[in-house]
Specification:
The complex is a heterodimer of chains A (264) and B (117). Chain A is α/β, with parallel strands linked by helices and 264 residues long. Chain A contains eight helices and eight strands; from the N terminus they run ααββαβαβαβαβαβαβ. In chain A, α4 links the parallel β3 and β4. In chain B, the strands form three sheets. A five-stranded antiparallel sheet of chain B has the order 2-1-8-7-6, covered by helices on one side. Classes of the chains: A alpha/beta (264), B alpha+beta (117).
Chain lengths: 264, 117
Amino acid sequence: MTPVPRESKASLEGSDATLAAYRRRASPPPPTRIYRFVRWIARTLVLPPLRVEVEGAHHLPAEGPFILVANHQSVLDPIVVQGFCTRPMHTLTKSSQFATPPFGWFLPRILALPARRYRVDPQVVRAMLRRLSQGEVVGIYPEGERTWDGELQPMRRGTVRVLLRAGVPVVPCGVSGAFQVWPRWGRGPRKGRVVLRFGEPLHFGVHLTRPRREAALPGAMERLSTAFRTLSSDIRDPGVPRGELPAGWALSNRDEEVVGKGTS
Amino acid sequence: MQEASREESVGWRGEVLGFVEQFGERVEGSLEVTHLRVVFRATAGGTREWLLDDLKALQASSSKVQLRTSAVGLVQFRFHDDSPRRWESLLRALVAERWRKTGRGEVVEFQPRISTR
């Protein structure tokens, strides 16, 4: 069940060899009935009012492992992307969603994998690479969280490192319109149109050692950002790290001066 | 304010998929932030504080702001009358300034851990 055998590291310095190694592994378990039922509900009841348009679905590989990466605009994204991805997809989901009993039971059955966002989480990386080694599809939102303002946020470097480690095709998916329908700060959905645009698979090669991943990281992040900007019409600017001060607050020169106060 | 008391494994079909944090009791109070520390004063009495120097990660999660320190673990704050994004932005600005001042470099990422270049 290990993703890539260590002894064959030297022979796997290329995507084709990695894919071949992955394909030799056990066939994937079928998606659960609950997954199929939820997907059916999503496609027949939830998504029609949203007027979802899908473009480029032919870019999704019909077989073999791949990672689908999408920009994250809204809570609707997983429903829309999973609803229209032609293959069952294991999606990285923030771990706190699993904290309550109903969701803790339900989410694994719709192929969600819990990712702790507040620390480096090797367990979810192992689970994800295991899925890929079984020839399955993994979905990731490389921004790590929903956007606050509709714009693309910086890619999480750790996530991009995992893409470089996995060495499978990466299919970019641009989501447009979901932010207008249900923004992060909104109380509920509004009527609107959501466009999903799948792009051509990106091949980053396989980078099994940390120095190789670090060397390839800036280029891979740039390629992903470019792909999202091309595929999602909503994105105006490339993401920049937030560090600006919110309105009404100012830093001071005195270390112990209170610069923020509130009730929690 | 809530502190994560433990992490539990999430398993399915005999496989550990990952881990999930479990939070303890919610405590009401007020929060103050200076250039050095985050201070929480509970309404029922008692004070907790976290030095900015000790923070390992910082993020907004739904309607909460979460901090992680190596010593204490994960703490989250839900604000009655303010936006988590405003608080996240304030804390990010303070952490970035503190890291710069103490020669630790420019912060490029706040989650899953604060990292510099």
